[in-house]
Write a structure and sequence with these properties.
2 copies of one chain form a homodimer. With 662 residues, the first copy, chain A, is an alpha/beta fold. Chain A is built from 15 helices and 30 strands.
Chain lengths: 662, 662
């Protein structure tokens, strides 16, 4: 027999909630958390309920009254107002006073029992007065006396229904048997750029002013104005640490490096140091600080690569042999996927008996770079490291530096990718790179934009990466690159490209059927020559400008697909949280041919009235159309533009018939 | 930093699971519990996992190995072998040996590292030998030596892949970093009749041999052969306790009783006693025992009514005034739904400060009747009593008497009905009484037969009750009664009727638009005259016989609906757990007209091959048909039969082409 036998209110089906509340949901600063729950009690009594929320570390909860929906479902909301961690839960109780007042309204004044019924209510008010103080208490006492007094029944009924009484009885409700939901649910509140960010990846060593020279941080600084002008706000650098010599890979991933080969940046660690050192040829720590500062001046944040693996030359190999798996011959186990061997890489052993020390050191790497001004970390292959480590590491870092962002670079099985997001990654790479046709795109992005996924997984879409030159881009030419960029930039509130390979439409694979680049920058220096016929920079800048101007494109929540009678044409809309900005994208998925078809816009879900015209302003192509009803004809020539990106507006019909735009 | 940092296996999405594991699932003795879970780890290592289960009170778990499905989903099963309570959970770990053997198969014998790789495995086998004992340990040691020995590589590779080694390495797997699912999930295992039961309700006082006499238990005993012959196995009696005099209701719920009015059996409690007393005019406790015993001899269990409410004359009112709510004038609050008053009933106050004593007394009522041989309780209006009480009471009773069955008579909002099932009710009344058309029936029974509802809510379907004469039965005549019985008996593994009102097709409401019976037996004696033109007993007996012969009709899990091109014709199939018995029901929902249409049987889901004929034997109408393919024509005359109840059979095609039936 529990002590809660008299707690009659029931709370269940609380949403949002990830895996029963095991993991926090995610929001960015200023976003709303709308909580729904099934709340009810036995019998016919009235139930009252409040949403409780607080910032982590606060003792007291703030209360918001729930409003009823239908079928015992309730909702209430709060704002994720501060970067950091918040909590929410639910409190509900059977309210005897509200039950009484509801019944009182149904009673007849002539009922023989009306007198005793009024006295029941007067007692409840008198009880509440004891929970109140000062003027409230006094007023409640006087109302209680009035209700059971000697004035005419009509006046006493009126006194019982005084709106002020309703307010005060809510304030001093009898909560002695209240039920509290058995779990405090968490919210991780990130800065806004965790939701909306536009990434550019480059290899710093490739931007030397002279051919065949090793680029430096200063060279990267010279790229900043161009990158900023293209509309990117995160500059992601592959590892900038010393590169090991042992088993260094040569050009095109050759197992044998020539003496002048620069090696893969992911072969981290050499005589000069490991994860907290800088590659000597890139520059000094001062140079790096200057890069971080100058980038900030251009509205760009630097994202560091975190690749927890070591070259055989990494200092940890000698200092902490226990952090690696040792083979019976005493050698350290290199990475392998038999029969393939990656002898230039030692994976870290997360079953190490020295795991606590190891975890601290790994977290220390991130802490070190935070101290150097970095707030964004793109984590390499997190799915090959233990989940408990990530959960601990990310929450530990964010406790002190809650504005830190972690991007999970995991291309693996769906549940593994989702788990990484659940345990703390702020953003995640996606399957976008391999989703090309209408059905694939529709299914995948519908899944990502619906509960529960949308509450823990923030997609970051990449049409290419140094590891992935998708087959589609190998044959589709500049129209294909424009299309994939447009899709990434409008389907994802966060997206990124690996440049300049992307804007120059580089499309040669290392071999037919492969997705690796020929002469990949991962293994050699490249001297990029920007501009020219194949440079689609202007298009990219244009698209990024549309993103900045339209809040609908800065969130993944308001996504909806609309039918088109041509499988090569896809149509989707996005809305911002306030439903004030509505963007409709109609894209031609065929990079080779003109395609046309009838779009069937679901106007009701867009908040547009069926019977009145609405304006469609194409921010990409520049046209301005007046549409009537949902069905409209579209024709798109991939040589001209991959899509229409319409901003949708409908006149508001007001009593005075003022013409102004939503 | 937790101590589980090295536990790399992840377990999530465990099903079945009710509300995150807060409530147990339900099974009957001998049923299978199939558990599925998402189980995986970081990286490429092999994960191993077992389902753990045990009977409540056992310390040790029994293990079953999971088998992989797709996409990191696994399944394993156990039998709910004993009535009572069971538990299950999941254990998973990263298996270094199995990872090694998988990789070994991909390695080349000529690889320079093959020697050291074999030694890695040999060490793992040597470690396992330390966890083993006796002959196993010795054998493992010898295999380990063989693997890293001096014989040719080929022989050592073969030794590593010996099936016996695989078995023993599973047996002595290294589980030191195993992850255990964080919740032990519960199963309530009931007797089979919790799933499959056929109920008959009657008012004992109405079966006197002389008109206008008060019937007795002996009169009920005389009804048993008839009820057994009709195929019913539960006889449910409305309350058989003393009936209060104060505010007793007269005929047709009149607020004033005449001196000879018998009162409502739910007005429980009088001078002669309360919930543990018998109505003096029904007989003695010995008579009752005789009824229970004789019923058992006829294969019938007696179900008692448990209505936790008191007439003003109930002994508890004087002995325990604290169990009721008191009004300011000192009187006890009667039941009301303003402006309606039920002054003959005092509800129990579940917020009583004496709630622990009260709970014990209420449980004591059930315990008393269990001691008298009753194992089934039909609980009146459980939704007006506190949920925590039911959860405690039902689990307390079932701890000692696990074969006890509780039927929830709640006709209320969906979430309330489901909650009662979750907190412990074995069976539940449903909305069936008001679901008449094809869409309503399809949606409702699809919901009931799918997870999660099917795992906690066992429907018991009633075409009528003493409180409910559905509008449909008021105008549809004997064809309507036959139809509703047929639907109840085939859509529900458990169903019941209130008789003899049902088999005599009694259809007069107390007033137009009401669902109360005219001259309801709840308030007066009735002398039933069985037989005659309107008596559909034979039909009922026939349907109950079909139920007994077909396991498919004895479970609610295998239900599936099939399209028909006529909205008045519904088609559904049921299968037993072994998919050996398949019943297809095609019913005409129109009680007035012949209806016909094309049925489109989904043969694949029925396990029937599309390209070969199958037999359809109508167990209701008696026909025998050979059908080809899914589309078949149906015509039904409600004057003849409401439905076809086909048993479906298809010859098995065997190599020898033996002709035998599945």
């Amino acid at each position: 027999m529990t002590d809660h036998g008299r707690s009659r209110a029931v709370i269940e089906g609380v949403e949002p909630k990830i895996d029963g509340g095991q993991f926090p949901i995610k929001r960015v600063e200023g976003e709303v958390v709308e909580v729904q729950a099934d709340i009810y009690t036995d019998g016919h009594d009235v139930v009252e309920c409040v949403l409780l929320y607080r910032h982590a570390g606060e003792k007291n909860w703030t209360e918001v009254w729930f409003e009823p929906l239908v079928n015992d479902r309730w909702k209430a909301s709060f704002i994720a107002s501060l970067i950091g961690r918040m909590e929410y839960t639910v409190l509900a109780w059977v309210d005897r006073f509200r039950s009484w007042i509801r019944d009182l309204k149904k009673r007849s004044e002539l009922d023989a029992d009306i007198e005793v019924n009024l006295r029941v209510g007067a007692e409840l008010v008198a009880d509440a007065s004891k929970r109140a103080a000062g003027a409230d208490a006094e007023w409640l006492r006087s109302v209680s006396e009035m209700i059971c007094g000697i004035t005419p029944i009509k006046d006493r009924l009126a006194a019982a229904q005084d709106p002020r009484l309703m307010d005060l009885m809510r304030k001093y409700a009898d909560r002695q048997f209240a039920t509290k939901y058995d779990r405090d649910l968490g919210v991780v509140v990130d800065p806004v750029h965790a939701r909306f960010s536009t990434w550019y990846e480059l290899f710093p060593r490739s931007f030397a002013s002279e051919p065949n020279q090793h680029g430096t941080f200063s060279d990267v600084i010279r790229q900043l104005p161009r990158i900023a002008k293209l509309g990117f706000d995160v500059l992601y650098l592959p590892p900038i640490h010393p590169i090991g010599q042992a088993y260094r890979k040569g050009k095109n991933n050759s197992p044998k490096a020539e003496p002048d080969d620069v090696g893969s940046p992911w072969g981290i660690g050499a005589r000069e140091g490991g994860h907290t050192a800088l590659h000597p040829q890139l520059g000094t720590l001062d140079d790096f600080h200057r890069l971080v500062r100058t980038a900030r001046d251009h509205g760009i944040r630097i994202a560091m690569d975190v690749a927890y693996q070591c070259s055989p030359d990494h200092p940890w190999v000698k200092e902490h042999p226990d952090w690696f798996r040792r083979r019976p011959d005493g050698s350290i186990q290199y990475a392998e996927n038999p029969p393939k061997k990656y002898q230039d890489i030692y994976p870290i052993d997360f079953e190490s008996s020295d795991w606590k020390e190891l975890w601290s050191a790994l977290a220390g790497v991130v802490q070190y770079w935070i101290a150097q001004g970095v707030t964004i970390f793109r984590v390499d292959n997190p799915h090959t490291k233990a989940f408990p480590f990530w959960e601990w590491m990310i929450s530990t870092i964010k406790k002190k530096d809650p504005d830190t962002i972690f991007l999970s670079e995991a291309f693996t099985r769906p549940k593994v990718m989702y788990r990484l997001a659940k345990v703390g990654f702020s953003q995640s790479y996606t399957y976008f790179s391999w989703r090309n046709n209408k059905q694939e795109l529709t299914e995948y992005f519908t899944e990502l934009s619906r509960a529960p996924v949308r509450d823990f997984f923030r997609p970051n879409l990449w049409p290419n990466t140094p590891d992935i030159l998708p087959e589609f881009l190998q044959w589709s030419g500049a129209p294909g690159f424009r299309l994939r960029l447009l899709l990434a930039a409008t389907l994802g509130a966060s997206y990124g490209i690996y440049g300049p390979a992307f804007e120059l439409c580089v499309h040669q694979p290392v071999a037919p059927g492969k997705e690796e680049y020929l002469n990949s920058e991962k293994y050699q220096l490249i001297n990029w020559t920007l501009g020219g016929a194949n440079d689609i920079s202007e298009f990219i800048g244009h698209v990024n400008k549309i993103r900045k101007e339209n809040p609908a494109l800065q969130t993944d929540r308001g996504l909806q697909f609309h039918p088109v009678d041509n499988p090569e044409i896809i149509c989707y809309s996005k809305m911002d949280a306030l439903r004030q900005n509505r963007v409709v994208v109609v894209a031609n998925l065929d990079p080779n041919h003109v395609q046309s078809g009838w779009v069937d816009l679901q106007l009701q879900t867009l908040g547009v009235e069926q019977d009145r015209p609405y304006q469609m302003q194409d921010r990409l192509g520049g046209g301005h159309f007046l549409w009537h009803g949902g069905r409209n004809f579209i024709q798109l020539d991939p040589q001209v533009a991959p899509a229409h990106v319409f901003v949708m507006r409908q006149h508001v019909r007001s009593e005075q018939d003022f013409d102004y735009f939503l």
